[in-house]
Design brief:
Layout: E1 2-10, E2 13-23, H1 28-38, E3 47-52, E4 58-63, E5 76-77, E6 93-98, E7 104-115, E8 125-130, H2 139-143, H3 146-153, H4 173-177
Parallel strand pairs: 4-5
Antiparallel strand pairs: 1-2, 1-7, 2-8, 3-4, 3-6, 6-7
Length: 188
């Protein structure tokens, strides 16, 4: 049985990626869940794959579910579509879009094909992880409540800021209105 190795890049930074191995008979739905798990995203939102070419142009859609939109071509459904059926090229590429509000986009590229080595591995599986995954919902989920504590701990009160009231710095309005001259007599 063929095992496909995909590299899923975070679109905005290609140094952040996950290598995922999956059997060619498994579905795009399983690949979708593997990508989400590898980047520590939840699976609460809609998603879709697009078959792509070397220029990352979107082709045939492979959707999580059927939508009520009118399509030129009805999209394939992830749970019904085996990954091997959509491989057209030894370097096949797919664009994966998750959460249509935030538009998390991942570039997914086939980087290897091998035979199943061991029945001990549960497919799909992450074989390599590079870079820190982006936080799905912002910095709060990365740092949790500790971020708020750190921010409040160093929030200085007005009396400790080091600034006095207006006019307390010793300058009078008269001094501010005077022009200073350098040795040549020019104003500056």
């Amino acid at each position: 049985m063929a095992v496909l190795k995909f590299r899923a890049y975070f679109e905005e930074d290609d140094s952040i990626y996950r290598d995922i191995v999956i059997k060619h008979t498994q579905t795009f739905h399983q690949l979708h869940l593997a990508i989400l798990k590898s980047f520590e995203f939840d699976s609460k939102h809609a998603a879709t794959f697009y078959r792509s070419n070397d220029n990352w142009q979107r082709g045939r859609e492979i959707s999580l579910e059927k939508y009520d939109k009118a399509y030129k071509a009805e999209p394939l459904i992830m749970a019904e579509t085996a990954i091997g059926s959509e491989i057209r090229d030894p370097n096949q590429k797919f664009i994966y879009v998750y959460d249509f509000n935030r538009l998390w986009t991942f570039l997914v590229e086939l980087i290897g094909v091998s035979k199943e080595e061991s029945s001990k591995i549960e497919y799909p599986s992450v074989s390599r992880s590079e870079g820190i995954a982006p936080s799905q919902y912002g910095t709060k989920s990365l740092l949790g409540d500790k971020f708020v504590d750190v921010e409040e701990k160093y929030d200085l009160g007005k009396e400790r800021e080091g600034f006095g009231e207006e006019g307390e710095d010793g300058d009078s309005d008269d001094e501010a209105d005077e022009f200073q001259q350098d040795e040549t007599g020019d104003d500056y």
